[in-house]
Amino acid sequence: MNNDRKTLRLFVYGTLKSGFPQHRHYCGPDARTYAASVPGHLYHLPQGYPAATIPADTIIAHGSADPDLDASLQDTHQPHPETGPNAPRIHGQTVELDDPGRLLPAIDEYEGFTPDGTGDYLRVLVTADTAEGPRTVWMYAMKSVRRGLQVPGGRWPEGMDGLKG
Asked: Of 37, 47, 101, 119, which has the fewest Cβ atoms less than 10 A away?
């Protein structure tokens, strides 16, 4: 691996998690993953996949069109203090992308993120809780959820049994 290459940490909570075909296709077969959670709400959309909303005050930075710059930003910002113990959480995985310049544009397109903000999703830098402590990570958050069911416990698809529609 090129030592100049940056690694981007991406928090995923749906179809990009390991075990789903999109993970292997977009993140690569050897992508490292580990459990993580972020503050927010998780919804199951009528289209069959999840979407997250997060509190505005948890956003550290907004994604750009430059994956290498964004990879650098995650290491220059300190994680926010942890939210309260009763705050809702989204549970997922952090994926380490070793070649964000190659991988992230395709993931951005898959997730409907546009750097100019015209897409349905934002890519934002937030603090994730991990076994190793708080880490800054990028994630995709929907601007607003107009139709969808909140997933109890913030785990998709595991929390689907608790949905009432």
From this structure: 47
CA distance linking residue 116 with residue 106, whole number of Å: 16
CB 11 within 8 A of CB 92: yes
Q: Residue 37 — pLDDT band, cuts 50, 70, 90?
A: very high
Phi, psi of 73 (to 5 degrees): -60, -35
Measured between alpha carbons, how far is 123 from 140 in angstroms, rounded to an integer? Answer: 5
For the beta carbon of residue 98, count every other beta carbon within 10 angstroms. Answer: 18
pTM: 0.92
d(CA 85, CA 109): 34
Q: What is the DSSP string of 22-73?
A: HIIIII-TT-EEEEEEEESEEEE-TTSSEEEE--GGG--EE--S-HHHHHHH
Q: What fold characterizes domain 8-153?
A: Hypothetical upf0131 protein ytfp (3.10.490)
Phi, psi angle pair for 159, to nearest 5°: -80, 5
Give CA–CA dist 73/89, Å, rounded: 24
Note the pLDDT of residue 83.
Answer: 62
